[in-house]
Amino acid sequence: MEDVLRSLGFLCLGSRMKRIGEQLQADTQRVLDRLEVRIQSSQYPLLAALDRLGPLPVGELALSLGVAQPGVTRSATLLAELGLVEVNPSNDDQRRRIVSLSRNGRRLVDQAKREIWPSIENAVAGLCADLSGPLLGQLAAIEDRLAATPLDRRAENTRVAAS
Question: Mean pLDDT in runs of 10 for the chain (163 residues)?
């Protein structure tokens, strides 16, 4: 059967990247399930950000991950219910919620850094093999270009230039 997304090239690049991302997350989830880790693969970036940057307000955590704040709020709430993060009001502004790793969250991240993340990273690097340099550079360039000029503006500019 024809892979329509693939055959449409740049027209469906976003859909193809989403498909690849979903596949990588699903595969990562299977790794976590085999290791009996009780969180979703999509929640690890939040834990990694807290590990790397320390306690953060929800808005800054969302910004550091490049995702919408409501999604971070939902993930933080679920991770708090699992005892992996703590969400507390800010000392200087009670409306702001500060998210930090709990003791159990720190243990999970430490274990993940030793036993889980390296194997997943190696698997993805192996998957990309000789593409790792160019692929990562190209993805970074795409992200930078989209940040500078979003796709909708590029589409308008292309349509105007074509007429």
Answer: 90 92 92 86 95 97 96 96 94 88 96 90 84 80 87 70 50
- Radius of gyration over alpha carbons of the chain, in Å? 19
Secondary element (H or E) of residue 150: none
With the C-alpha atoms ordered 124, 128, 134, 140, is the resulting torsion angle positive or negative?
A: negative
The answer to whether the beta carbons of residues 67 and 59 sit under 8 Å apart is: no
Cα(57)–Cα(30) distance, integer angstroms: 31
DSSP 92: S
The predicted model scores a pTM of: 0.83
d(C-alpha 157, C-alpha 147), whole Å: 16
Determine the length of the chain: 163
What's the token pair of residue 38?
Answer: 């009780």
Sign of CA dihedral 41, 43, 47, 52: positive
